[in-house]
Each structure stands twice: as C-alpha cells, then as structure tokens.
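ok new one. same drill as before - structure tokens go in, u give me an amino acid for every spot. 371 of them this time. try not to just spam alanines like last time pls lmao
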C-alpha cells in the first residue's frame, strides 16, 4: 500500500513477521539443536515444532482480542508499568541482537573485525546501526493509534523479503550432495523430560513473533489468519534448513560451532569454480539478516517508548535506544557466553512474559470497564 493512512496489507504484515522470525532463528537454532538434542535431534525438532504451533497460536489468539498499546495507554499506572516492562524486554533483546550481529560479522571475516575485542568490533557495527536507525525513524505524524509510518516499514521489508531467502535456497541446493541423510533417521537417546524442556528453551528464538501484537491493529482487512500459517511455515523451513546443515556438518561438529550457519558456507562450492568460497557471495545476506533483527527491534522499541512518552521526539528516542544497544555490550561477555544466558533468561522470564503481559493487560482492562 502506498497511502499514508497508518495501514498495511496482510502480505506486508506476513513478510515483516516472517523476516524477523527467520533471521532470529536461522543463525542460532541449527547450532543449539545439535548442542541440546544431539543424536535425538529428529524427535527434538518434532516437539519443538508442536510447541511452536501452540505458542504462535496463543500469540495470535490473544492479539485478535485486544489492541495492546491502545489498552496500555488507557489503563493509567498499570498500563504504563506494562509498557515499561515491554520496553525493557525489547532493549534487552536489542542488546543481544547486537552481540549476535558482531559474532556473525566476525565469523564472516568482514574486514576490520578485531577478533574477540568487542569494543573495537562494535565500531564496525556502527554503519549497520545507522542504517537500522534510519529504517526505524519516520516523519512526524498526527496523534493516532497506529505506529509511526507503518506503511514505510511494510514497503521496506516487502522489498528485502527475497534478499534474505534466496541465498539460503542457493546454499541448500548446492549443498544437497554433501548431506548425510542419516540425520533424518529417528533416534531416541535423551531423557523424555529433557526432550520437552530443551524444545521449550528453543522457543526463545521465536520471540520476534510477539511483534504481531503491535502490527495487527494496522491491518487494512482486519483478518491476519494467513500470517499465522506463514510463521508456522517459516518455522518448518528453519527446521528443514537446520537438518540440512547438520547433515553437512555433522551433529557433533555442529554442537561445537556457534556460528554454524555461516561456517558451513565455506565448504559449499559453486559450479564451474565461480567462487572459491560460497560465503564471499552471501556476506550481504548476513548483513540483511542483522538489519532485520536490529531494525525491527529498534522500530518497536521506539513505538513503545513513544506511547509511554508521547511528547518526546521520536528521533531522540531511537538515538538513545541505539546508543544503549552499542554501549551496553562493551561491558558484557562475548556472544559465546551470552547465548546460553540469553536462552535461560528467555525461557524463564521473556517467553512467559510474552503471554503474561498481554493477558494481564486484558484482565486489567476488563476489570476497569466493569467497575
């Protein structure tokens, strides 16, 4: 849609969700699945897929009964407190995505990356952050219930949709000859309780689907059912790609390689010796994935902060959030240490809050209306 009415089409909504879920999962899930499930990865992915269907279904069911930000701004102190919690969760996620992006760029051997010296590597992140900030900014608008210039976001992610998927399609096609198909043979070598527990932990990497709470009120047709199946199909694609990566690299080798998705590309050869290493062709894909994670998280952080502080200028809100995302990682451990910590935090805190916060807001809103 090219109008400026604060609305997006369902196709644009689908692509915004699919891009964030795919980028948030494909860099981490192949490695973590091998590390957690080991040789029982087939059954682990089966349970993970069932959990994903249930979790995404819960998000969609709740979102269809409420406008999250509108209800939060209407419910005084409680609503503002819920907004603060949501903002802190987004900022924490943003900081982790910065660490993930640094690790991706290090593994891709982008020029000027300085090994594990995070402070210097964050300077290399600066251009990417500036692009993400530009994508998250928008023009000044009149007071309305939709996010700032959501149409601009919809068109942006609609344009880059295939840029994110095509390189992986090429990678899988040229890597099929190296896949060990025994990876698809079901094996069960893990305690039953651990299988379910690890599958639940893996849901942490699907948290970007929570953006549906903020996107659905902007739908022009008020349906949004197709986007549910698009997200589930994206999870299925991530699982299939993960199987392919594990089949090429091996389960035990993948468990030791944190950046498996990038490392595997060094072993894929293009025909006719076009390139010696496949990863030199798809560095731009890594950058696009990083941009999606940072840009969308920044955008919705700014949206929530704007709802909490309606008189503040959006430019300064985004700049402060970006500065936090770049400065805080300097004092944090490397990505290799932060990944399991982020996963534990997500499973114990962030994932439950993604359902508790909207349900709490819905209950408070119902109580205030009935009183």
């Amino acid at each position: 849609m090219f109008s400026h009415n604060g609305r997006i089409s369902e196709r644009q909504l689908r692509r915004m969700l699919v891009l964030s879920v795919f980028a948030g999962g494909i860099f981490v899930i192949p490695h973590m699945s091998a590390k957690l499930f080991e040789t029982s990865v087939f059954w682990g992915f089966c349970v993970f897929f069932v959990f994903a269907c249930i979790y995404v279904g819960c998000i969609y069911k709740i979102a269809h009964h409420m406008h999250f930000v509108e209800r939060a701004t209407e419910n005084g102190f409680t609503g503002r407190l819920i907004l603060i919690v949501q903002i802190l969760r987004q900022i924490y996620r943003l900081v982790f995505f910065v660490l993930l992006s640094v690790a991706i760029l290090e593994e891709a051997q982008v020029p000027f990356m300085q090994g594990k010296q995070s402070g210097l590597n964050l300077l290399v992140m600066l251009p990417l952050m500036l692009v993400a900030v530009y994508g998250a900014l928008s023009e000044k608008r009149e007071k309305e219930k939709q996010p700032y210039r959501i149409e601009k976001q919809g068109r942006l992610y609609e344009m880059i949709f295939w840029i994110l998927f095509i390189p992986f399609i090429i990678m899988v096609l040229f890597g099929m000859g190296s896949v060990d198909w025994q990876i698809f043979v079901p094996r069960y070598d893990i305690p039953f309780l651990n299988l379910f527990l690890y599958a639940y932990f893996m849901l942490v990497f699907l948290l970007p689907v929570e953006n549906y709470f903020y996107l659905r009120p902007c739908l022009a047709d008020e349906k949004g059912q197709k986007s549910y199946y698009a997200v589930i199909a994206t999870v299925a694609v991530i699982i299939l790609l993960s199987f392919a990566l594990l089949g090429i690299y091996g389960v035990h080798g993948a468990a030791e390689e944190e950046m498996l998705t990038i490392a595997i590309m060094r072993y894929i050869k293009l025909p006719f010796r076009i390139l010696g290493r496949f990863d030199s062709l798809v560095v731009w894909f890594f950058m696009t994935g990083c941009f999606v994670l940072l840009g969308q998280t920044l955008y919705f952080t700014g949206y929530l902060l704007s709802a909490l502080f309606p008189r503040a200028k959006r430019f300064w809100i985004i700049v402060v959030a970006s500065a936090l995302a770049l400065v805080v990682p300097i004092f944090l451990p490397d990505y290799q240490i932060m990944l399991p910590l982020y996963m534990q935090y997500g499973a114990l805190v962030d994932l439950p809050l993604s359902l508790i916060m909207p349900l709490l807001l819905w209950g408070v809103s119902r109580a205030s209306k009935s009183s």
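The longest helix spans residues 335-370. and btw The radius of gyration is 20 Å.
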